[in-house]
Amino acid sequence: MSPRRPLVLLDLDGTLTDSAPGILGSIRDTYAQLGIPVPAEDVLRGFVGPPLHENLLGHGVPADRLDEAVAAYRRSYATGMFDNAVYPGIPAALADLRDAGARLIVATSKPEPFAVRICAHLDLTRRVDAIAGASMDGRRGSKAQVVARALAMAGLDAHGPRIMVGDREHDVHGAREHGIATIGAGWGYAAPGELAAAGAFAVADHPGDLARTALAALDHRG
Questions:
Q1: What's domain 20-81's architecture?
Q2: CB 9 within 8 A of CB 110
Q3: Which residues constitute the signal peptide according to the record (predicted)?
């Protein structure tokens, strides 16, 4: 039997890509379409990363209008998703991880069809082994559920050394439900101290530090 490859699960928004412009533009459009006041800018920043429905319900959208809000957001985001860019240094970090033998799977709270299109548009698809995301019907929406899908995609490699890379506390918590430690992406959208408070194993300050930090964590936990 061939040895299991180290597994690295990768968040998308705020970890691989700077997606805030497209996401926040679509959020503003959503509130405008619903006739609900748009949250303050510092609140809007918190929409990048966590599951959409949680943020909408927590910031002025009534439960009986949630489906309407999600539909409005997806209409806007169908074009807004491309207002997005790969962080400098990420392609090299992914190449270094692959050269070290790691299997790379994107694990994002974004709906999987959107994630697939974004990765293709930004030339990330060929740099990873698979893309796992939330389901369009909401049945798979939490980070823990997305991580479970990524682990299913990994097959036997899911039972070897593994690590999550993400920029928000929900990445840390979702991975922990599966016994997986998280490397914080310090260049992303977390508030100061958020990742450490959530219990991240370590925080990489820059994409250039990612491969070294992740491989050290895999060796430590191997």
A1: Orthogonal Bundle (1.10)
A2: no
A3: none
The CATH H-level (homologous superfamily) assignment of domain 7-16+87-220 is: HAD superfamily/HAD-like (3.40.50.1000)
Q: Compute the distance between CA of residue 133 and CA of residue 113 in angstroms, rounded to an integer.
A: 8
Question: Is the CA virtual torsion 39, 40, 42, 44 positive or negative?
Answer: positive
Amino acid in the structure at residue 160 = G
Are 132 and 107 in contact by the 8 Å Cβ rule? The answer is yes
The CA-CA-CA angle for residues 54, 59, 62, to 5°, reads 80
Residue ranges of domains in the chain: 7-16+87-220, 20-81
Question: What are the structure tokens assigned to 98, written together?
Answer: 């692959």
**Active site positions, annotated:** 11
- Give 140-184 pLDDT, tens digit per residue: 889 999 999 999 999 988 889 999 999 999 999 999 999 999 999
What is the predicted pLDDT for the residue at 67? 94
